[in-house]
Amino acid sequence: MQSAIPVSSVWRRPVSPLHCRCEEGDLDLVVIGAGYQGLSTALHAARAGLSVQVIEAGGIGDGASGVNGGQVIPGLKQDPETLLALFGDEAGRRLIEFSAGTADFVFDLIAREGLDVEHTRSGWIQAAHTETAMQAAVQRNRQWRAQGADVALLNPAEIALLTGAEGYRGGFLDRRAGVVNPLALVHELARIATEAGAALLLNDAATSLQREGTFWQVSTRSGRSFRARKVLVATNAYSEGLVPNLARSLVWLHSFQIATEPLPPDFDFILPSGQAVSDSRRIVLYYRRSADGRLVFGGRAPMRVPQSTDDWLHLERAMRRLFPMLGSMRIEQRWFGRVAMTPDYMPHLHEPQPGLLMAAGCQGRGIGLMVALGGVLARYLAEGSREALPLPISPLVPIPLHRFRRLGVAAHLAWYRLLDGLER
């Protein structure tokens, strides 16, 4: 995924060295993909006594785990009552309990392991830009309060005070959430996973998976070969043809971000308490402050890679609409990444053959969801008990007419952008 222009993010890489190596002999587990899901699973599987080899096509943080907005949001896209309706009482409550604790899992891991990751846990705001969106916030607040979550509704004055932005009708505040340096987090996960005993191979893509008796044979671009009893394909939005129908079960989009120059001290009214924000528009806008005081602002973008800085102009316009006081504040960095969506806006677990496992679809909850999911996936891979899983294992179902997804996504984005513009 090469851009025609140089791109760089604001996120700092830790200085801790990584020790890359390859395991020899038969393995318990091969993990394909060194993002949050893959590395968290490798860490917890290695600590459970499994021999683990991680294979990554690029470098640590080259995919979505290193270029996202760093928002750690608990829960899922759907609220508790919808989850109960979809999965029934027992499975629904297990999923609610798991998703409610995903941010806890991340911040507890950072504290317990002493990870070199800038982080702030001041909460997440879902900002309502219309009265209809505000009514949805009322329902979300009611449902999560019934689950005992530390959440609240914000009126127009409160949300203006917490964000410094103009035009919101109110919003939903989830105090369980926070922000991290996403690139530092994935690097630190790689460090502690290798220290726990997981082997790590970088810049060498897995190119084939073959079942041989009770083992899986995994071959790579460079000609390496690994035998493992189980395989986790943790490639998410970067899934290509390795597993039939996996890529065709997902719709991937580009998420673009910009960062201003460090804001001057008299702009301390912009996100003064350090919350992350996502708004209620159909094409979501999201923003936060970085550790060095920049405003980091992101949103959806075309599926093609950017060709010039003009491809980020829609974000600059949106940012200056919400924060007109920024005026001619310079945009110093621009970057982008790929994210995966599912048609029902739910994460999916698949096991198309015995010992071949995968999870995909984050819907904006990727950091908390995938880091926490790594813990339960490791337990399932080690013990084989489905009771450890918060989601049912479902069949891989390709999206109809998937080859035309670019046209469909482009049409949806254009239509949603028009509707969002009319609602301002």
Automatic annotation (TrEMBL):
Signal peptide positions (record): none
Gene3D superfamilies: D-Amino Acid Oxidase, subunit A, domain 2 (3.30.9.10), FAD/NAD(P)-binding domain (3.50.50.60)
Record domain FAD dependent oxidoreductase: where: 28-379
GO annotations of cellular component type: cytoplasm
Classification via SUPFAM superfamilies: FAD/NAD(P)-binding domain
Record's keyword annotation contains Nucleotidyltransferase: no
Domain of life of the native organism: Bacteria
One Pfam family of this chain: DAO
Protein name: FAD dependent oxidoreductase
Lineage of source species: Bacteria, Pseudomonadati, Pseudomonadota, Alphaproteobacteria, Hyphomicrobiales
